[in-house]
Amino acid sequence: MNRLAAAKSPYLRQHAANPVDWYPWGSEAFAKAKAEGKPIFLSIGYATCHWCHVMAHESFEDEKVAERLNRVFVPIKVDREERPDVDQAYMAFVQAATGRGGWPMSVWLTPDLKPFYGGTYFPKSDRWGLLGFLSVLDQIAELWSRHREDLVLRGEEIAGRLREALAGSRPGPPEGGRAADRAFEEFSRAFDPEWGGFGPKPKFPRPAALHFLLRYAATNRGRPQGERALSIVRQTLEAMTRGGIRDQIGGGFHRYSVDRFWRVPHFEKMLYDQAQLASVYLESFCCNGGARSESIVREILDYLLRDLAFADGGFASAEDADSLSPEGGPAREGAFYLWTYRELAEVLEPEELALVVELWGVRPEGNIPADADPHQELAGSNILFESEPIEEIASRRGLSPGEAERLRSAVAGKLVRARSRRPRPAKDDKVVLGWNALAVSALARAGLLLGEERYREAAERTMGFLLSALFEPATGKLFRLYREGRGEVEAFAGDYAMLVAALLDLFEVTQEAGWVEKALFFQDRMEALFRDPESGAYWTSGEKASPVPFRMREEYDGAEPAAISIAAANLLRLAALLPEERWPGRLEALFRAEADRLADGPTALPQLLAAYLDSTRPRTSVAVVGARDDPRTRSLFASAMSGLSYRKLLLWIEPGKRFPFLGEQEAFYLSLPAREEGPVAYLCQSFACSEPISDPETLRERLRAAS
Question: Where does the Spermatogenesis-associated protein 20-like TRX domain start and stop, copy by copy (predicted)?
Answer without folding.
Answer: 1-161
